[in-house]
Amino acid sequence: MPLPAGTTTELARPLTDDDVLLLRRDFPALQQQVNGHELVYLDSGATSQKPISVLDAERSFYERENSAVHRGAHTLAANATELFENARTTVARFVGARENEIVWTSNATEGLNLIAYGMSNASVGRGGADAARFVLTEGDEILTTEGEHHANLVPWQELAARTGATLRHIPVDDDGTLRMEEAERLITDRTKLVTFTHVSNVTGVINPVEELVRMAHAVGALVVLDACQSAPHRVLDLAALDVDFAVFSGHKMLAPTGIGVLYGRAELLDALPPFLTGGSMITTVTLEASGYLPAPQRFEAGTQKVSQAIALAAAIDYLSAVGMDRIERWETELGARLVDGFSAIPGVRVLGPAAGVHRAGLASVDVEGVHAHDVGQFLDDRGIAVRVGHHCAQPLHRRFGVTASTRASAYLYNTTADVDAAIDGMAAVREFFGVTS
């Protein structure tokens, strides 16, 4: 890696293509050809590649410390538990939280369901007086947005169906930005929960978190932040943002699959009823009833994701050594280059803000006359990996009048040459399929 751990990122110079080429040596999956071409991986919005240090961290655990955590008094168990809890400390520090505010999940989707089902349990009397603020009844409202990933929509649909609450949404403008005048109208005394994505996985729009939090808290509503597309790519301080809950996934930020994070303010997590129950999350158990531990253990029933958590900490160490502000600036540059290049191609429509508007390092497009899956296969033939489909955001695609799109998403290991290869490939799509006008 070009920078040592602990680099003061505020003083570090911006990333360059030469820096990125050095970083890329750390990623074995990028050292290959696809269909006779050097791999250009522009699908990190779906899942990221993993550096050697992350692979080594997980392998080392299995080779040297493998044991059940929080169980047993032998040396391996103690070592495993220490590594596991140290990983929690690393994640907490990375997002501006305390250790008892970080809950391990399998992914962000599980974290969102954990909140939703916990609120559902509270609404049928579980959790007692401490859980009263989570209770939903008929007349209460849950507010989300038109731009959400299905993971931040379907659980709230289910919660509304179980409790009688009404699910409402903030609409988006033609460029994918939230209609904030509608948000102000929709957030009322009936609103009990406001949940939204930090960064759109389709448009790259960066939502105004502080303003939405202020509006929600003014009426006593809880705020849930989907940070899946922000935690891997930008400095994230959840305490400073003042959100009540947040979720993100490890596999999008250099870590393995099967590990995610739920953040919650400590007093809220301690009051929220659990929805997964069993071993390791209890104080006492009788044949008739059980008592539950405080957070985070109350939400971590059963055998945990030990190696994955340790590897996530290694991924965070890697990202921190490069510098999250440097990564954000680099990806902003790559995202602008993608949008500028795609927008200049006849018959290619970029979904979301026009060129020149600040966004994350991704761009989704609709190619006139060519289905997104055909676009993706054409690019794959050139060794360019992109995402195709509705990206688990059907309502947003419907808002744009399309059923699917092709998304290119950059990360710290992508160069300007990668972006230019995608632009050149996209420019050749319509001619290849014979749909040029």
Q: Tell me the strand percentage band.
A: 15-25%
CATH fold descriptor of the largest domain: Aspartate Aminotransferase, domain 2
Helix/strand/pairing class, anyone? alpha/beta
Q: How far apart, in Å, are the first and last alpha carbons?
A: 48 Å
Helix content: 25-40%
Counted up, domains total: 2
Strand arrangement across the biggest beta sheet: 4-10-9-8-7-5-6
**Count of β-strands:** 17
Low-confidence stretches: 1-11
CATH class of the largest domain: Alpha Beta
Produce the secondary structure layout.
Blueprint: H1 17-24, E1 33-34, E2 37-38, E3 40-41, H2 52-65, H3 75-94, E4 102-105, H4 108-123, E5 141-145, H5 154-163, E6 166-170, H6 180-186, E7 191-197, H7 209-218, E8 222-226, H8 238-241, E9 245-249, E10 260-264, H9 266-271, E11 282-285, E12 290-292, H10 306-322, H11 324-343, E13 348-351, E14 362-367, H12 372-381, E15 384-385, E16 387-389, H13 394-400, E17 405-409, H14 416-432
Parallel strand pairs: 3-15, 5-6, 5-7, 7-8, 8-9
Antiparallel strand pairs: 1-2, 4-10, 9-10, 11-12, 13-14, 14-17, 16-17
Helix pairs in contact: 2-10, 3-10, 4-5, 11-14
